[in-house]
Amino acid sequence: MSGTDDLLVEPDRLAAELDSADPPTLLDVRWRLTGPPGRDDYAVGHLPGAVFVDLDTELCGPPGAAGRHPLPDPAALQAALRAAGVRTGHPVVVYDGGDGMAAARAWWTLRWVGHAQVRVLHGGYPAWTAAALPTSADVPEPEPGDVSVRPGALPVLDAGEAARLAAADGGVLIDVRAAPRYRGETEPIDPVAGHVPGAVNLPAPEYVRDGRFPAAEALRERFAAAGVSDGTAVGAYCGSGVTAAQAVLALHLAGRPDAALYVGSWSNWVADPDRPVATGA
């Protein structure tokens, strides 16, 4: 398979795989930063056989100084994934409500713990229903999985490493938040506005629209415009490590599987008042 095929799956192809003798494990990770929980959407309808996994409580640790969506406890994550039927060496497909952010964070988390066979449903649940494919309100009872969680398969940045990357020659730390948040003109969520000194701004809508990614060459051009070229060390952050996980997925699609995620992101950075804050363009 191509690199894209290893990362994304279109609805028609997924439908064929689900109709096969050995279908992939489906995880519904619909989530909203604010508003009703994704489990409510799942109860109304989901892909047949999909198991709901909660981003806030199962794929991430509890919020605190490490950020709003910190790394999960490995034992707790392993228990949640096994309960969802995730098996060692067996393909997984994750999907969300269409913007691709929660699905990307689920994809990143599974890859981070060493489960390489995980893809994102391109376009999420809306793409599935737009293709007139079947949905269900039945809640499956999967056979418990046997996946083993072994963190460290994808690179992670802490605050110090993020700062060093932003300041380094030949390094790029991408801030994927909206430009006014990056410039420090507004901050609707965190207590301090601004950005990590030296970080460059590349808002998410510049490389993904409605949860759908452009071709690899277009992604490479957009990241190159932000300073990411061959041999450039690159990492990404956002408010709490969800949208930035989507940036890491985009970088994988662009041929940069070495891209690092600052999981704690801005919510972790501003938890320490001694860390410097930059404002402006």
Distance between the termini: 41 Å
Instruction: Provide the residue-averaged pLDDT.
Output: 96
Please trace the helix and strand order, writing H or E for each element: EHEHEHHEHEHEHEHEHEHEH
Number of strands: 10
Which of globular, elongated, flat, extended, rod-shaped describes the shape?
Answer: globular
| SS field, number of helical segments | 11
Share of residues in helices: 25-40%
Can you put this structure into words, describing what you see?
It is a single chain. With 281 residues, this protein is α/β, with parallel strands linked by helices. The protein is 32% helix and 12% strand. A 5-stranded parallel beta sheet has the order 1-5-4-2-3. A 5-stranded parallel beta sheet has the order 6-10-9-7-8. The model has no long low-confidence stretch (mean pLDDT 96).
Please outline what is shown here:
The chain is of the alpha/beta class and 281 residues long.
Topology:
Blueprint (H helix, E strand, L loop, with lengths): L7 E2 L1 H8 L6 E4 L9 H7 L6 E2 L2 H5 L14 H10 L8 E4 L5 H12 L5 E4 L2 H7 L25 E2 L1 H9 L3 E5 L3 H5 L16 E2 L14 H10 L7 E5 L5 H11 L6 E3 L2 H5 L12
Parallel strand pairs: 1-5, 2-3, 2-4, 4-5, 6-10, 7-8, 7-9, 9-10
